[in-house]
Amino acid sequence: MALKLKAVEYEFVETDPYNKNELLLKTNPVHKKIPVLIHGDRPVCESLVIIQYIDDVWGDGPSILPSDPYQRSLARFWAAYVDDKLLPLFKELKEEKDKDAKKGIIKKMSENFILLEDAFVSCGEGKGFFGGDEVGYVDIVLGCFVGSMRAIEIVMDVKFLDKNTSPGLVAWAERLCADSIVKDVIPTTQKLIDFIAARAQQKA
Amino acid sequence: MGEVKVIGGWFSPFVKRVEMALKMKGVEYEYIEVDVVNKSPLLLQHNPIHKKVPVLLHDGKSIVESAVILEYIDEVWEGPNILPKDPYERAMARFWANFIDEKCAPATRKALWSRGEEREKAVEEATQGLKILESEVKGKKFFGGDQIGYVDIIGCFLAYWFPIVDQVVGLHLFTQDKFPSLCKWADELCDNEFIKECLPDKERLVDRVRGHSQAPRSL
């Protein structure tokens, strides 16, 4: 998403994170995880680090982070919030087998989304994205999950984003998925549903 | 350049990160000690989401999360760079700061305070993390090179707080034998004038650790 926003051409190398290949182990020996951005012959790891690197290197394109230091600090705060609070709950939800426990996790996630709704209103200043008129850092950091969220909503018959409690985020998600930098990058909902089913079968 | 305040707890390495960065930049600030356990109203007002120290108040605006605050300080005030200017070096600095905060901090905390099998597992994890940092800092004065930088400030709890608690609880993980480069880095860091000014009194810290060893709290 960040590379598309900056109109940077890149080669995508599909890698199975569950069967770590040599390239992954060589370029991310510390964490052994995707994504890895290889620029020239230098790897950069950790998605939030990579996005900021892309913003620093391709400074001529649209900005990913705001230019004002205080707004930047807010963007970094909310990005960290998504990664530290919301993402672990996603992972827990995927691993959890018990239905009641799943409901408990979804309830916690709804509380997070209520806070993110407030963040959306204040960071975006009433505009279409967290970044204002254009997609920005928090839009990318949270927005990358929108596809998976939709797939899980269908598979589990739940709702993460509720029109009543998070109307701003519901509209934001629609807007984001229609944006050209997202449309080509996020897999289709069906592909993600198939992936979830395949993983569940593998684990069973 | 505006009114600057730091809301903190005297013992917190995360608070000290912010003070170190401000001192490096030569920024005058007012320090406000708050009750972090009973969450003073000032803390709840300025950090309603996480309810934690540190909070940086700059002209009434609150910035929270120590890593976020450090980047803010570096962007707002002139003076020595906290983060490198080169984009790749900046990415590396952020990567290592992340590694320290996401992997080493929880693992070392668990290694110090857990018991039995949980402790064994945590010690193994903490050792792995420290070994990786050992090889990263080997041959360098600081993680930032010749000058103290972002990773050194973020990692400061390993240089001062961790060895103290390590000795008090009797874990003896952070030793010269096991981590000679990290120990050398720790000595260099704690000897720096800006860093030294910020470090809490060792005896006071030891008392706090001893007093809380029945009910483990964060460093």
Describe what you observe in this structure:
Chain A is mainly alpha-helical and 204 residues long. Helices cover 60% and strands 4% of the residues of chain A. Chain A contains 10 helices and 2 strands. A two-stranded antiparallel ribbon of chain A has the order 1-2. Chain B is α+β, with helices and mostly antiparallel strands and 219 residues long. Helix content of chain B is 57%, strand content 8%. Chain B contains 11 helices and 4 strands, in the order βαβαββααααααααα. A 4-stranded mixed sheet of chain B has the order 2-1-3-4. In chain B, a hairpin with a 2-residue loop joins strand 3 and strand 4. In chain B, helix 1 packs parallel to helix 3, helix 4 packs parallel to helix 8 and helix 8 crosses helix 11. Chains A and B meet through strand 2, helix 3 and helix 4 of A and strand 4, helix 3 and helix 4 of B.
Briefly note the structural class of the backbone of chain A: mainly alpha
Estimated share of beta-strand residues of chain B: 5-15%
Rg result of chain B = 17 Å
Q: What is the end-to-end distance of chain B? A: 32 Å
- Helix coverage percent of residues of chain A? 55-70%
The helix/strand order of chain B is: EHEHEEHHHHHHHHH
Q: So what's the oligomer here? A: heterodimer
The two chains with the largest interface, and their residue counts, are: A-B, 22 and 22 residues
What average pLDDT do the residues of chain A reach? 91
> What's the total helix number of chain A?
10
Low-confidence stretches of chain B: none
- If you average the pLDDT of chain B, what whole number results? 93
Strand order of the largest sheet of chain B: 2-1-3-4
Large-scale geometry of chain A? globular
What class do helices, strands and sheet pairing of chain B give? alpha+beta
> What strand line-up does the widest sheet of chain A have?
1-2
Shape of chain B: globular
Compute the separation of the termini of chain A in Å.
33 Å
Q: How much helix is in the residues of chain B?
A: 55-70%
